[in-house]
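Hallway conversation turned thread

IA: we were arguing at lunch whether anyone had actually written out Peroxisomal membrane protein PMP34 end to end. Turns out nobody had. So, for the record, here is the sequence (312 residues) and right after it the structure tokens. Reply here if something looks off.
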Amino acid sequence: MSFSVFSYESLVHAVSGAVGSVTAMTVFFPLDTARLRLQVDENRKAQSTPAILAEIVKEEGLLAPYRGWFPVICSLCCSNFVYFYCFHGLKASWLKGKQSAPSTDLIIGIVAGVVNVLLTTPLWVVNTRLKLQGSKFRNADIRPTNYSGILDAFAQIIRREGVGALWNGTLTSLLLVLNPAIQFMIYEALKRQLRRGVPRELSSVEVFIIGAVAKAVATTVTYPLQTIQSILRFGQFNESTDESKLLSSLRTIKCLLVNRVRKYGMLGLFKGLEAKLLQTVLTAALMFLLYEKIASCTFRVMGLSSNHYKKR
């Protein structure tokens, strides 16, 4: 088992996934900026993505849509490296060369997601705050922050809020491991369906489409929890300290969901979904395309291409 997990193949998948995701996120980063503003700034009207971006540029400058790019890219690179490594390493150990099934992909995806969340949540908490720093919010209750960089953000959060604050939103993140798990389950199932048992490399168009479909389904299903996750990571909420961490987290998630529905109705849970779908579907589709091409070229150079496609 250790050979399957700690192998060159798992490393190739991890590096390919990390490079693909970083490139794709860089291309579509302004769309993520629009999505995050709609999620955390409750007083900002839900508008089309171009309208939101036009407002941000007008009020905050031309480079504002790329604010916080570096910490996001660092977090994304680490996160996807861990996820792709765990997913393909565990899959190789479990299957031992056999054909996979959707249920297997889902279980492995959940396990890989849990490992990823526990290791990388502090990076996502810091990057959420840096990305929103200096923004002009419609909600007057949001407190301004002043971090000079990633390390300073870590230091200030630990000093003022305690080490535990770096794992704000961990419970929602653990629930949201279903997002990449569903995404990978659908992606791998569609990939097997297109191949119909014949080991071949999918075309760029095929990879792009199935990557987009898989992400669209996963995002729509889990979006309300993603909104709560963004709010918790931003840290602009009051959490009870008179009960256990688990009960407090569950109560906070429930309160945020209920308050959102009371203020804006059920559709309030999906505020920013258009921007999120536009960003995440295009990003995921491009990421999977780059990942497949990078992995394919690397395996071909290593002389593993034929065996690689038979096992996937």
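OS: looked through it. The two ends are 17 Å apart (CA to CA).
IA: good, adding that to the notes. Residues 47 and 272 are 8 Å apart (CA to CA).
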